[in-house]
Each structure stands twice: as structure tokens, then as C-alpha cells.
Amino acid sequence: MARETTIRQSNDDDADVDPRSGKIRVPPDMSLQSAFDDNEEQPEFDEALRPSKLSDVIGQTAVVERIRILLEAARKREQPLGHLLFDGPPGLGKTTLASVIPRELGTDFQITAGPSLSAPKDLLPYLTNAGKGSVLFIDEIHRLPPAVEEFMYPAMEDFRVDITLGDGLNARTINMQLQPFTVIGATTRSGMLTAPLRDRFVNREHLSFYTLEELTTIVCRNARKLRTEITEDAAREIALRSRGTPRKANNWLLWARDYADARGNGKISFDIAKKALKMKGVDNRGLEELDRQYLETIITVFGGGPAGVQAIAHTMNIPSDTLEDEIEPYLLREGLIQRSPRGRMITAEAWKHLGQKPPKSKQIERDEDDVDSRGQLF
Ligand code: ADP
Questions:
Q1: Are 111 and 21 within one domain?
Q2: Known catalytic residue: 95?
Q3: What is the pLDDT of residues 232-267, one digit of tens each?
């Protein structure tokens, strides 16, 4: 059976955070069992630091503005919000925005994820439990098996499901009417969504990386939530090395707090932040060991590229999905790699960052046919 999170509305606007553990204290009227409990990439403090109101969401201004319009229209018409799809790299706030919407509307929220729905019967309880105007959030929606996806089409379009009972000559189909509800899908790979599923989302929003200022604000605000003292320059230093990603900024903030408790007086100063991040192997552009390993693999094994993502993944012994979802988007944005029809290539900037010189024969040519396809990843 698929794991499930159901959040029923409470009047508490702000999450009650235990300042030492960083864990959320769940009010008695809210049952919350994260769909990501056993997922290392979703540490428990994610819940604690997650904004709970739209006004607490920092950055993504245009997206937030459009969501405000959708919310207002839904409230005025007393109809559910149109189905909404968020896409963008991990940790940018897809789950956050999805969870804020039902809170703003005062409706129920259910969470599941594509990989945990292996058959239509796994999805059925979510659909039948969905109350009028409630939100069903499906993370990693690009990983829904085809049978589940097809089962969802009538549910999204006409709020009904077709259930087949028995088989062969005795088979009969029952139509079950559902309450009008909203599906919010999240994906790191909108390109992998089938056209019929994508078309059923009337609203689609792309989340992009955050600016240094936005991330600094997030770090300062979250330090306050954790009741940890932090200087402005330390918050900026953490933000600078967070790859434009709030989840990363939260991770580094918690690590800096641990470091400050263990090696200092508990206050995160510039010096403490710098030392803590150095110990984690984060460089001044926010690159970590795996990022550098990726760049060095293209240099040493593929002479700077072009190299296919599968070949790089095999060489590094890492799933190509991890490279495409977690490593490449930021390196592309930083201009450290280029995607061309022939494969991935190291840019002059990357050679410089690694303190190496490109061999003359391998100087990066910016051929006319080399397309800068940064956006194509999403
Ligand atoms: P995704 O679902 O895209 O992987 P999440 O929504 O889980 O990312 O975000 C990860 C964490 O980053 C959240 O727990 C939250 O603390 C923080 N976060 C994300 N977006 C924002 C934002 N716009 N403002 C403040 N914090 C954010």
C-alpha cells in the first residue's frame, strides 16, 4: 500500500519547531506522516523549516503571484483550483508550494509519490478520500506507471474513475463519481511526462534557482526559527555556497549550527560558517565533491568532452538520473558545462575553476551547431 500523508487543517499558522532538534512538533489535530520518511534527501527538518503560508514563501515572485490569482479565483467561484504542475530541480520548493495551497484554501492535503503507486488500486484510496476542493500532491509524477496514469485521466478530467470488476466474459465496469479536487504534480523532468498527462494540468509552473539575496533571507529566517544566532555575513556565505537551492541552504545552516555548537560558542560567525563548509568540501561556488568528480571525469576520461551522460554515469558508477537531476542543472546554470547535440562539454570556466588549463587540441569550440540547451533539462 502506498505511503500516505494526510494533513488536516489546524488554526496554527506557523509550525512549532523544537529549536534544538529542528523537528516539527505536530499539533494533536494534525496527523502528518511524511511520504518521505525514509528518504535521505528529505531530512526531517525539511518539514520544520518549510514555509506554511504563501506570504512566508521567499523568491519565485512571479510563480507566487500567479498562485495568488488562482487561489483568489478558486475562492470567488467556490470551485477547486485547476490541476497544477510544478517542475524544476530538487529542493527548490515544489512540495513547499504544494503544501501551502491547501493551507491557504483551508482544505485537506494528501501526499503520495509516483514510484509508490505501482497499480491503480494504490491510487484509488487517495481519490476516494479526496474531499471537495482538497489537494492531492503527487511527487515525481513522471515516474507513474502507465496503468496508473491512464486511471488518472478520467479522475482529473471528469472527477470519476472506471473500476473493472472480474475478468473475461463476467467483467463489468463501474463508474465511481469523485468529489471535485485538485491534483498538484511535481517533477524534476517535465520532458518525461507523457503529452496526455501534461495536457491535463491546466496550470504549469517552472521553479528556477534562487538569488543570493533570497537565499540569505531564507538562511536568516530559518536560523531564527531554530533559535540560532547567525551573523549577516555568515548567512550570506552559507547562501553563496548553496547552489541556488533552499534545501541546500537549510542543510548547510544545520551543519554550521552543529559545527558552532561543537567547536565554538553556538553562534554562527563568518569564520565558523567558512570552516564548517570547508570541512564538508564545499568550494566557493557551492560545488561539492560529486560535482568536481563529474567535471574531472569529463576532463580525464573524455578529454573535456563531448561525452554522453550515460557514459559519464557509467564511469562514475552513479545513476544517470542523479547526474541529470542533481548535478547538471546547477553546473549548466553556472556555465561550467555545455550541452550540445554531441554530449556534455567542459567550458573554459570549468577548467579555470578546477585550476587546470585546457589542452590546445581540446579548446572548447563554440560551433554554430552547438546549442546552449540549459533549459532542455527541465
Ligand atoms: P522540492 O519539493 O522542490 O524538492 P521542497 O519544497 O521540499 O523542495 O523544499 C525543500 C526545503 O527548502 C523546504 O523544506 C523549505 O524549508 C525550503 N524552501 C523551499 N522553497 C522555499 C521558499 N520559497 N522559501 C523558503 N524556504 C523554502
A1: yes
A2: yes
A3: 999 999 999 999 999 999 999 999 999 999 998 999
